[in-house]
Amino acid sequence: MALLKKSGPKPPRDPEGRMPLMEHLRELRNRLLIAIAAVAVGLIVGWLVSGPVWDLLKEPYCQTPQAQQLTGHCSLTYNGIFSSFFITLKISLMVGLVVSSPAWLYQIWAFVTPALYRSEKRYTLTFLGLAIPLFALGAWLCYFIMDTSLTFLLGFSLEGTVATISIDDYLDYVLIMLMIFGVSFELPLLLVFLNIIGVVSHAAIAKHRRLVVFLMFVFGAVITPGGDPITMMALAAPMIVLFLAAELFMYLRERRQPASEFAGLSDDEASPLSDDDTPIDDHTPLDTPVDASADGDLGDKRP
């Protein structure tokens, strides 16, 4: 006779999000599948709109004088029979990741949020709400000045030569520049986060302000592939403005917080003892007899 498994009510979910390891792995698997499915749907959408997206991406190059030298109109080259297919697939994947970002970002959030406290959830939502516009602002600025940067870089061609730029090289250049500008605009937000959790103080930032500004100019000169001054300034100047805004936020935040009584002590200086002589527990009488039999080690053992 087959034994039927009794189906009872499922155990209540732990309000603090604790679960066995296998449950965590199963939840991670399910959320990864949902995220991959969302990206796949976004990939299909990206394939359908890949033509207009490509026209938008190549517009900065078409604004350069060098784009008209080869055929009289804006044109890029590619090599290989399957190159055009993979280029279209790359553009579609870019669009798919952007279109499906609400879905896979939510899956990441839903997987991580049970382990966070309420204050940590609030800070996470605030930082996520600021990180997306900052990244978009950096990408837009990159797109806005990319034609000037390309004109500067392609202006070093020798006399009598024509630049034949492949679509792969140009697309990689656009992706790298968009990512660099977008991620660079997140650095001041990271600085604010480190200040909130107590890793970096405003005093330390104010002390090294000139060095940080200088390093931002160096970062803008090194991280941009072309190294031209226009792209460097376009990256460094907004970063400096955001850095100063982050420093102002840290100053106002620390000013609102009450100063600790031990704030003036150095790391190797001991804190003073308290003069408070209030008993620890007023309800416990001091003349309570001690039961020596309860602790044999404390009893007076005489022969």
**Low confidence ranges:** 1-8, 294-303
> For the residues shown, what is the average pLDDT?
76
Structural class of the secondary structure composition?
mainly alpha
Shape estimate: flat
- Total number of beta strands: 0
Q: What's the SSE pattern? A: HHHHHHHHHH
Question: What's the N-to-C terminus distance?
Answer: 73 Å
Beta-strand percent range: under 5%
Round the Cα radius of gyration to an integer and report it.
Answer: 31 Å
Number of helices: 10
Largest sheet: none
Helix content: 55-70%
Protein name: Sec-independent protein translocase protein TatC
InterPro entries: TatC
Transmembrane segments: 32-50, 91-112, 124-146, 173-199, 211-227, 233-252
Organism: Actinomadura luzonensis
Structure description:
This protein is an all-alpha fold. It is 61% helix and 0% strand. The protein is flat, with a radius of gyration of 31 Å. Residues 266-279 have a biased composition (Acidic residues). Belongs to the TatC family. Its main location: membrane.
Brief digest:
The chain is 61% helix and 0% strand. The chain has helices at 21-48, 50-62, 83-99, 101-112, 118-154, 167-184, 187-196, 202-207, 209-223, 229-256. Belongs to the TatC family.
